[in-house]
Amino acid sequence: MATLEAFLGGVQTLTADFKQELLTADERPLQTDTGSLQLKRPNRFRWTYEAPAELTIVADGQQLWIYDVELKQVTVAPFDDTVGASPAMLLSGDRNVREDFEVAKTYTLDGLEWVELEPIGTSDFASVAIGFSGKEPRRLELVDGLGQVTRIELDNIVVNPPIADDVFELAVPEGVEISGGEG
Hints:
The protein is mainly beta. The protein has one domain: Lipoprotein localisation LolA/LolB/LppX (outer membrane lipoprotein receptor (LolB), chain A). It contains three helices and twelve strands; from the N terminus they run H-E-E-E-E-E-E-H-H-E-E-E-E-E-E. Strands 7-8-9-10-11-1-2-3-4-5-6-12 form a twelve-stranded mixed sheet. The longest helix has 9 residues, at 2-10. 28% of the residues are buried.
């Protein structure tokens, strides 16, 4: 837990590439996506998924924007407590992690120091585990209520690079439908 708290206390911005796998409860692969992420405290992040599932998820601290390129649709939702208990907010949020999660266990596996967390209150996840190499998060493993696992491997991590605020704004292309929230 000290590693997680040191990371949360010392990191204001972060960029990385990711590989995200969705696995069944018995670890059979269902889907694999790749992309990049940027985060900036407090409460701002951008996850960009590459083809074939082109998707951009942006939190600007006020609203959450989800842009599905194939559907030509942007969904806007208020930035609320549901987002606050998400894994993205675990890494980019401004609240003490102990407000939204409790430590289930810590362990070493695959050369990483792991912290397994369980959400307090409502969440889409039964547990979230973060594997650290030194002070950098390298892997996140999220287990949903059905036992499916989302495994996110981080690579090319840069801690505290300068990131312009406009990275956390979504420029909606011409002809793209906007639903929900304020567009």
